[in-house]
Amino acid sequence: MKTAQRKSTRPGRPVVLVGMMGSGKTRIGRAIAKAVRLPFCDTDDIIEEQAGMSIARIFETQGEQAFRDMETAVIRDVLARGGPVRVVSTGGGAVMRPENAELIFGRTHSIWMYADIPVLLQRVGRSNDRPLLRAPDPEKVLRDMAEVRYPVYGRAGLRVDTEAGDIETIVQSVLNFVDQKEQENE
Ligand code: S3P
User: Fold this and answer.
1) Which partner for 92 in 1, 9, 21, 64 could form a disulfide, CB atoms 3.0-4.6 Å apart?
2) Is the beta carbon of 48 within 6 A of some atom in ligand 1?
3) pLDDT, tens digit, 9 for 90 and up, residues 40-58
4) For residues 92 and 130, what is the distance between their CA atoms, to the nearest angstrom?
């Protein structure tokens, strides 16, 4: 017996995931890419590859501004310079530069991966890979960040609560949104 095929167009524009550290952008991004058979990339991974060192090390040796410049260059490469349509997971602070935000919110299917602060804290609060959380009170860091960032993440076309269902359900809700947008743009 044939199983019913989920309807989903292969997106004509990149699908870009934004949201806080620990919100599941990479895990969910990979699953979305697999479902629509598109390449996946994570801007943090590209930065680490190009710099030949970890993000934490870039922060330590060159500072946050240098990291943000690398991040902007990668986002430009991935979104503005053509190339294949991809599913892209971005670092939590990427949208805070207006130039990046214009590319992401203006040209892609942008999706905000949302999770409550206690959930984020549990996932990444003690992470050594997140230099911005190496602070005496990581919860306060996340709360302060959320206050500034949520209005910007809110520019995304869709907000997905990553706690509200299993990964298949999340992937499906993203693909339904993308399908609908692609049809509107036809
Ligand atoms: C950052 C998030 C990280 C990474 C860097 C800065 C941020 O990416 O880009 O540590 O400013 O929120 P993830 O969101 O993938 O953890």
Assistant:
1) 21
2) no
3) 999 999 999 999 999 999 9
4) 10
Question: What is the C-alpha to C-alpha distance for residues 70 and 43, in angstroms, rounded to an integer?
Answer: 10
In short, whether 131's Cβ falls inside 6 Å of ligand 1 is: yes
**2 — pLDDT class (breaks 50, 70, 90):** very low
From 62, 59, 71, 75, select the one nearest 133 (Cα to Cα): 59
- The model's pTM is 0.94
pLDDT digits (tens, 9 = 90+) for 88-100: 999 999 999 999 9
Q: Taking the chain, what is the end-to-end CA distance rounded to the nearest angstrom?
A: 34
Residue nearest ligand 1's atom 12 by CA: 92
Orientation angle between helical segments 138-153 and 117-124, nearest 10 degrees:
120
Alpha-carbon gap, residue 81 to 89, rounded angstroms: 17
Asked if residue 115 lies in contact with residue 106, where contact means CB atoms within 8 angstroms, the answer is no
